[in-house]
Amino acid sequence: MLIVCHLNHSLRGRESDADAAFVRETAEALGLRCVVEKKDVSAIAKKQGISTELAGRRARDDFFSRMARKHQTRFVFLAHHADDNAETILGNLFRGTGLAGLSGMTPSSESEDGLIKLRPLLGVRRSEIDEFAKSSAISFREDSSNATADFRRNRIRNEVLPLLCAVFGRDVTPIIDRVAQAARRDHACLDHLAREFARTDLLFQPDGSLRITPELKTADPAIQSRILLGLLVDVSGCTSITSHEIDAAMSMLSTGGPAKINLPGDHHLRRKAKRLWVQ
To answer: Alpha-carbon torsion 8, 147, 82, 91, what sign?
Structure first.
């Protein structure tokens, strides 16, 4: 059984309400159950001191998680397509991402709470979706804010990608997709090697600390960085970890390196007696 879930972000007043009504009416016409909720994302962003985009993403994730628990499922289908992924990868690139960010979105991903996000249209272009809707006489609504320069993603879509296509004289989205596929492949391999390294060397301890062994200290930085990311995020639950924190943590492995570094959220990574742990 499919259930249509729509979150009204309240960012475009009556237009947002009309979108929600359209989704509900379309679902009912197709004989599908529909759940619509409304959040003032702008107010949430202001209260939490974060961007509207981040507030909207968090609100959607919370909404989907609640709906999944309520209807006893782990799966949510999202409509991200190939052009969305190209925009995401370019945005990640200029934030200084590594292989994980260059991998972009994946056809299937699992959230920390166990929710599995499925993206069946990730290999399909937006133009193909539009053509299918047109040829099949399927009505749809376009978010008018997509045409504005208010959000970075919109500028990537409307300015950066067209400029790149013009500069290189070709459609660059398939090229970006090939880069993402290669990044996903290499990232998965390095992750596997790092996990095997940590398991074989018994690095992670029951108390949540990480042993600093001679083997870890001489390991390739690509392995070190992934093990330390696992300590900070997977074991200790730290959030907002960037390459800056990972580089600082790697410096703690060296003789004479710092014994303590600051982490986001008022946490600290400490070193003592050949162990690292988050305090």
So the answer is: negative
